């Protein structure tokens, strides 16, 4: 039989155990260094991968910019859409600043020589370009080039109606972002007035006959006019209220639901602004207006689509509160670790205008775009490291698990008090 190993007493050394030598120390040190070098190399590889991805992304953007002057309309359209998506989802200020004149020339060319859908894409890209550049000299130079083109298309009755609709929306936001002279803002507002006032009821009480596409053009012009109304001076707001407040309510009778909603929101916005300027403001047609708004808030006409009625009721309940009580139904927008409260019609109109172009990237721009954060008074962008984001994710997971466990426990507790079958037995 093999000999049993001798064991020392408590605290003694175990047999066949060698003391810790310098060689062992060097091996352990090498293992730590190897682990550290592996982590360092992994971080370097991640950095290189990110840098390569950034280079590939910028290369694609350069290809898009070059393709905006291609002979093929389909290629130009794809390039415009690619640039729109990139600007809506990322902050590209440095890249765009170096190429802004090239991009501006491409937009101008597409607006002048393109047709329909291409012109719409170019108009939207112009807005995103101004949003990226922010309010300053760069965006002012871009807008000075594109404003005459926008107004020419907008006032041209023979131009493509979709292009005119897109220019009506884009001209409003670009003016808000890049116009440096308030008198030019008023001139642009008059340009919008010359459009949507064609939907006003005539002096003899008859309603103009307007086709649906032209009505959409008038709706876009009205919304852009209302957007610029948010930056007007007090004296100009008084003049506008005196001129338009008696006529705007007749747009609530329009057959198009979008026009009715745009008119209702504009009326609420105008009441909010005029009350801020003059707290004792009194409107002669207040009672008929409230009756009309109340009817729209409870509209049950069978000839209207259910979705249109549902949307209309929701909007006009809020509009009625704004006119009667000066109240606004606030809404909270959450993005990252922050939140923003939409607490006025002015802020709502501004937020809706930006969201129309940025779309799903609005939350990202609220986090990272300095210009948009300045518009909504959010302060400089908050820098959050990856560790903080990871901690936030883990806390959400913990809350989810807690809620799941609480739900399970609550279900079990309720089951005890519910009627169950009980074996009574036979007598």
TrEMBL record:
Classification via InterPro entries: ARM-like (IPR011989), ARM-type_fold (IPR016024), IFRD (IPR039777), Interferon-rel_develop_reg_C (IPR006921), Interferon-rel_develop_reg_N (IPR007701)
Region (Disordered): 1-51
Residue ranges occupied by any Interferon-related developmental regulator C-terminal domain in the UniProt entry: 369-421
Domain Interferon-related developmental regulator N-terminal: 29-324
Any one cellular-component term (Gene Ontology): nucleus
Keyword Thylakoid: no
GO-annotated biological processes: cell differentiation
Ranges of compositional bias, category Polar residues: 28-40
Top-rank taxon: Eukaryota
Keywords tagged on the record: Developmental protein, Differentiation
Keyword Nucleus: no
Family indicated by similarity: Belongs to the IFRD family.
Subunit structure: Interacts with PSIP1/LEDGF.
Protein name per UniProt: Interferon-related developmental regulator 1
